[in-house]
Each structure stands twice: as structure tokens, then as C-alpha cells.
Amino acid sequence: MRSWLVLTDGFLTARNAKTAHGVIRYTSDRIAAIVDRDHAGSSLHAVMPELGRDAPVVASVQEGLQYAPTSLLLGVATPGGWIPEHWRAWVIEAIEAGLEIANGLHGFLNDDPELVPLATRHQARLWDVREPPAGIPLFSGKSLELDKRIVLTVGSDCAVGKMTAALELEAAGRAAGRSTEFIATGQTGILIAGRGIAVDRVISDFIAGAAEKLVLESSAESEVLVVEGQGSLWHPAYSGVTLGLLHGTAPEVLVLCHQAGRAAIEEPPYSTLPPLPEMIDVYQSMAATVRPAPVACVVVNCRGLDPGQARRTIEEVEDDTGLPAGDVFRGDAPKLWQAVDRRLAEIAG
Amino acid sequence: MRSWLVLTDGFLTARNAKTAHGVIRYTSDRIAAIVDRDHAGSSLHAVMPELGRDAPVVASVQEGLQYAPTSLLLGVATPGGWIPEHWRAWVIEAIEAGLEIANGLHGFLNDDPELVPLATRHQARLWDVREPPAGIPLFSGKSLELDKRIVLTVGSDCAVGKMTAALELEAAGRAAGRSTEFIATGQTGILIAGRGIAVDRVISDFIAGAAEKLVLESSAESEVLVVEGQGSLWHPAYSGVTLGLLHGTAPEVLVLCHQAGRAAIEEPPYSTLPPLPEMIDVYQSMAATVRPAPVACVVVNCRGLDPGQARRTIEEVEDDTGLPAGDVFRGDAPKLWQAVDRRLAEIAG
Hints:
The first copy, chain A, has 2 domains: 3-128, NAD(P)-binding Rossmann-like Domain (Rossmann fold, 3-Layer(aba) Sandwich); 142-348, 3-Layer(aba) Sandwich (Rossmann fold). Chain A contains 12 helices and 12 strands. Chain A has helices at residues 18-26, 44-47, 61-64, 88-96, 115-121, 162-175, 187-193, 207-216, 239-249, 276-287, 307-321, 333-348, and strands at 3-7, 30-35, 57-58, 71-74, 100-103, 126-128, 149-155, 180-183, 224-227, 253-259, 295-301, 325-326. In chain A, α11 (307-321) links the parallel β11 (295-301) and β12. In chain A, α6 packs across α12 (333-348).
């Protein structure tokens, strides 16, 4: 059980604090305090009530130590993926206090010639969350023989809520009495689950092998694995990771995640997205090369819509696709889990 | 201009000497000699006439030195991707003779604590062909703005001849008076072209970025780039690399490569291949997210078929797909190039 000191300095409410927000919202660990000078003296609940959690917001790592943290989280995406220079003194303070440092950035703490010996001296663990484990094998097809049901969230684009959908469905399945397990494939998911592989950091020949390894090494007691998807088949920068994950995990049920109103991907080359029924066909047809995996439901992220608009949008998606739809951010996970569970029952039967 | 001493000891005629065979057949460098104890005293032409090239076959690196090589090629895929222990003495002899060592294996010579200082002392270059360059960027979409025509070979499976098709089409295009350039994306192609990136060795977040970099850094004088494809959308172990390359290079014309008679992929999970027209649809539909890229023709590898069977197979493929088909191993590259060139003319018009 960790106790997190979450460093977001200057970014607590920003979109690039996605990792911090995800961990705060979903970790089963304790949140000791938030370090953010812009909001110091306030509380997490006052600044971001939507995260559903409270903790003091403090101005420095030193000040945060009074809340008995075990770990410092570097939870903000930074330009170039490196630790900002002005955070460095704080990281050093945390190491000197014996805290574990959890780093979700591309740049690794364990490559830092100053921090590594300091951490050794203070017995502080440097956890580079994206660093893949050694010895990832090539894809073998063994995932097909695993006697567990495998569900994968897939998306129309990046940042539409694939991780959140997987976490919410896993929780809804557990609430419904199934032995579900969330399988993390990206840095935020790994911080939440405490394990996983950042598949986008693996050598590309081993994407599917890494995905398969995650499935094969799931907990012995899990019956249903809910795997966090990555990227989108329509996002050229990440489509390779998306397809490698789709094939490597060998899912039997897919959950399509979409941002309401998004007609094109949000980054260059801003490719136009096909209609939802076509996206469903493409994911199903690409999955089928390994085994059939019907899309069971559509998760619609209705961020920014009022309740009436959200309801109408979800109804439209249901009409367009003929599938149950809902927004996991608005409490629809139990309904969506039922759709997943019906598909799973069809496979078992 | 290199002069190759090709080390295939015990594998000269084996399928895992694919890299050696490719380099011998297509390099514009000189082949000094082959080191292979099983065939020593014979000639390359006598042992493998199909490679269309001659050189003495010798029993040792020492013996090969009399033919004035500049470079030793480790041209055989080995178990685990590491240099077999009994080759090590030969590599050391070659380094001591000042030869460049070209290594297409997964294991890198530049990670070897014994070979690196030895090579430094003898001013011998250790060329790890699969080692990606530093600083590969994320995909940006700039490949879409490049004023060059881009052709990509894609395949139904691995080892069906995508590299050979690209090399033969590039040569046929050049023979037809176009300024073509072969773009290498795998170790054998890189050894032949003298440059390129092994896209399967890149961190998976950067597959498309690496592919785009290759296209953007092509020679200024080239009008048409013929890019070597990798893997297959139906091979789960490599499909991520295939799609990343398809999106990252942003081709305008595709060439589908297929092995005659192959109905399923040759490795686990032995997925069934769809009919050729469906494969064409899937590649075209996946490419279209970046830009339209019709399949212009089908390259049919008729290995093992007699001339009559090959002719009938190719005619059947033409009937099934409505596209020109042919075998580049049997002299059909000029015909196939014409099909590519017609598509290119349609784009230009």
C-alpha cells in the first residue's frame, strides 16, 4: 500500500496532468497530498471535485512530508518527456527523505547519473513506470489457450477514455460478482494497478509478445481480464501499437470507446473518422485474424455535454450501431458491463 | 564500395541464410568470397546458381582474406539472434585484419565488452545493422507533403518476398527511365541499400515516425520511392509493425505480395488467410486513413512450381483480383512496374 505525494506543480487542473488525475481517481492507495504552488492551502476536493477524492494541496515536497507519503508521483506529461529542471530539487528532496519516486515520463530516472547513486544511498526506489521488463518474448499464440475471458477496450482516437472504460468495467464486473482483473498497458494504468507493461515503450517486434505476456501473467484467480487499449487504428502515429495489442491480447469481446462529436483525430494529419458502425466492422475484422471478438457496447465520452445532450447522443449511438451505449463517467458502467457479460455468456455457452 | 566476405558457415543453402542470399543477389558491392566449410573449394555459382553471382567458397576467414574483402557479413539468422560461439574466433580474426563487421542479428556487436575495444584498436567498424538511429521523432504527417510518389510492398504473410518485390520494381522503374529509390526497412534491405532503419527494432511508439523519417530523408533526386514492407496484417506477431509502416510511409500505391498456394500464415497461431480480393480491400481500407493507396498489382511468389503451374497460378490471381499479377523471381517485374506506373500517372494526372 503506497501513500502518494502527487507532484503536479502548475498543472493540477491541466489536461497534461492526465496521469495524476487517473491515479488520484482510481488508485486503491492513499493520496497523502498534492504539491502544487498554484493551489497551495486549498484542498484537492475544492480544486477538482470531479476526481471524487480529497487531500491537502501543499506548496513544496518538504511541506508534503508531514502527511507521511511513501512515494512521490511525477504525474504530468512534460515537453519532450523529461523532468523539468525546477522539479529536480524536489525529486532530490524526496529521495533524501527515502521516498520512492514513480516516474511516468519517457525519460528514465534510472538513466540519471546524479539521481541513481543518491537513491542507492537513501534506499529510495526509482520506479520508471514505462521501462519494459527484460526478456519479453515474441508472440506465440499461447494467449489463445488461456482459460480466461479477455475483454479489450479499443478507441476511435487517443484520449477518449479507453483506460477509464477498462477500469470502470472491471469494477462493475467485480460489483456484479465476477472475478475481474484490470490489465494495464500504459503508464497511468500501471501506476494504478501497480504492475503492467507500457506497450508503446517496447521494441516494435515485441508489441504483441508483450501484450500476450500481460494476459498470460494475470492473477491465477481472475476469470475475466479487462485490458486497457491504446491508440486507435485511425491514428497513424499509434495504430501499430493498437493493432499489436489487439492481436497480442487475443480478446473475445471488444468495447469501442469514442468521444462524442469527434469527427476526426485530434492530431496531425487530422484523419477523418469513419462512422461508428464502420469502426466496429474494422476492429472486428482485424481482431478476427486471431479469433472472433464482437464489439459488445460503445462507451461514449460525453465530456462537455449537458445531461440532456448526453442522453440524446447516447441514444443516437445506440440507434446507429444497434449496440448498448453509455458514458462510464456518468455512471453507465453497470449497464455496459451487462452487455459485455452477455457476450461472455454466449462464448461460454 | 564494399567487398564482402560472407560468413554462412554450414547454412549457405539454408533458408535462414536469407540475409546472405539477399545481399549476394542484390548488392551493388563486390562479393569477395563465401566462408562455408561445407562447400569449401567449390564456387558460389556451383552451389547456388539461382543467386546469379559467383565467388570462391573458402573454409575460413583467414583463407578469405586473400580475396581482399573490406567487410565481413554475418548473414545468417541464428537461434536467439546471437553470434554462435564458434563464429566468434572468426569475427575476432576479421577485426584483427581491420575488416568492418556487418551484423544483421538482434544481438549487437557494439554491446560486446570484448569486441568493442578490439575493434577500436584495429580501427574496424562494428556495424549493427538493426540498431536504430538516435532521435527518431513521432509521426508528424510531413510525409504527406513530400513531392515524391511513394510505393509500398505489403504481404499476406512474412517471408513471401516483399523486399525482393521492392528491389525488382525499383530496378524495373529505373530501367524504364524513372528516378526510383529503394527504401530499406529491414536488415537485409539495409545491407543492400547501405542505409535504412530496421523498423521492427524501433520503440513501438516510433514505428510510424521511423517510417516517415525514411521517406523524408530519401535522396533529393528520387521521384519514386519503393518502400520495402514488413510482416503482414494477418500475422499477429508483426501486424503492428506492418500497420505502423503502412501509415508512417503514407504510400499512394500498394503492391500486394503473396506466396502461391499459402492459405494460412506459416507460424503460430497459423491464422487462415482471407481470399486475395479481401486482403486487397483490407490493405486499401487501412491505408486510406492516411491517404488513398490502391493496390496496383499482385506479386505472386511461385517458388516450387513448374513454369506451367506458375503461369496458371498467376492467371488465376489475375482473374480473382482483376489486377495484373506476376512473379518477380521469374522476370515479371517490368510488367508489374507498368501497373504501378499507370497508377502513379493517374495520381499525377
